[in-house]
Design brief:
With 330 residues, the chain is of the alpha+beta class. It contains 10 helices and 17 strands. A hairpin with a 3-residue loop joins strand 16 and strand 17. The structure holds coenzyme A.
């Protein structure tokens, strides 16, 4: 009989070598450790130097995840890279495939900003459920520092760089218990990284656009309201699909954007703070990397154990948001 269930069997994570703490931030913009800590919970963030690439940190996270799953690169059928900041705008998943020597794997990028990892998990699951692929490597990685305006104190204090990865495998019992995904492009302007065209006249009749991407732009208050309202709703829906209730959850694993968002969502769902995974004090908002990074840390610390039920939710630019309910291990 074919195994059409899904198990999440390994995790890994990696960050750049150097971090910048809130005190260091005060040398860049008019801010304070007190403001950043009380408004966001963030104390430091890792930032990629100009010699570090997304491919490098993503590959490092992927190697750890494959080692934990007990699987070799040659056994991987599909590599999905959730990122908004590839080294190559054509995609970086193939660069990672080359770096890992995953010769059998097909590889492509998936962009859904800070929801990318959750969207990626659901995408990976479809290939496994249909019997097309058995072993999928899903990586969430971002180097947002490349696109942050380092003179804008409203955004630059929030973000950090990093990578996290998981291995999803075909399994007899299905450990992906439920999910729900959403998008709302009408709110795109609340958080974006837009291409700004610059006209270049090619012929008398034709001007093409050879512009550039600008910095991350964000309406913090609107994004905050969106997250606090939509995330509890979507977790409820994913739980409904899994035929579970909030009481069944062992861990709430949210995109690590802001401690106040984590607290407000947990409060609305009536989930006690001991069940909320939080590591954003050390990493800031690492976009598509934040959920697998926090997952990997919690697994390696022995917090998340075999059979634990995790409610994960990503939210961010697009706007996009989503939730997956899964059980850790085989
Ligand atoms: N240091 C010091 N002061 C700062 C600051 C900083 N880093 N950033 C903003 N301020 C100032 C503002 O200029 C403003 O001053 P003013 O009243 O004189 O104009 C004041 O602090 C309050 O700004 P405001 O934007 O109202 O703060 P806030 O309470 O909404 O907190 C965020 C700002 C960004 C922390 C909050 O809105 C938030 O977390 N939003 C969600 C963002 C997010 O998670 N985005 C990613 C989602 S994937």
């Amino acid at each position: 009989m074919q195994n059409l269930g899904i198990a999440i069997t390994g995790s890994g994570s990696a960050v750049p070598e150097t971090f910048l703490n809130n005190q260091g931030m005060t040398e860049l913009v008019d801010t304070s450790d007190e403001w950043i800590t009380t408004r966001t919970g963030i104390r430091q963030r890792y930032l990629a130097s100009c010699h570090e690439s997304l491919t490098q940190i993503a590959s490092a996270a992927a190697k750890q995840a494959m080692a934990m799953a007990g699987i070799t690169a040659q056994e991987i059928d599909l590599i999905l890279l959730a990122t908004s900041t590839p080294d190559d705008l054509f995609g970086s998943a193939c660069q990672i495939q080359g770096e890992l020597g995953a010769t059998r794997a097909v590889a492509f990028d998936l962009t859904a900003a800070c929801s990318g990892f959750v969207f990626g998990m659901v995408t990976a699951a479809q290939y496994i459920r249909t019997g097309v692929f058995q072993n999928v490597l899903l990586i969430g990685a971002d180097i947002l520092s490349r696109w942050v305006d380092w003179q804008d104190r409203r955004t630059c204090v929030l973000f950090g760089d990093g990578a996290g990865a998981v291995v999803l495998q075909a399994n007899q019992s299905d450990r992906l218990l439920g999910f729900e995904l959403k998008s709302d492009g009408t709110q795109n302007s609340n958080l974006n990284l837009t291409y700004v065209p610059q006209c270049q006249q090619l012929t008398a009749d034709l001007a093409v656009s050879t512009g550039n991407f600008q910095f991350i732009s964000m309406n913090g208050k609107e994004v905050y309201k969106f997250a606090v309202q939509k995330v509890p709703e979507i977790i409820d829906k994913a739980l409904f699909r899994a035929q579970l209730t909030v009481e069944d959850i062992d861990w709430l694993l949210l995109h690590q954007a802001n401690q106040r968002i984590l607290d407000a969502v947990a409060q609305r769902l009536k989930i006690p703070e001991q069940k909320v995974i939080s590591n954003l004090a050390s990493y800031g908002n690492t976009s598509a990397a934040s959920i697998p990074l926090a997952l990997d840390e919690a697994v390696r610390e022995g917090k998340i154990q075999n059979n634990h039920i995790i409610a994960a939710s990503g939210f961010g630019a697009g706007l996009t948001w989503g939730s997956v309910i899964f059980q850790w291990g085989k």
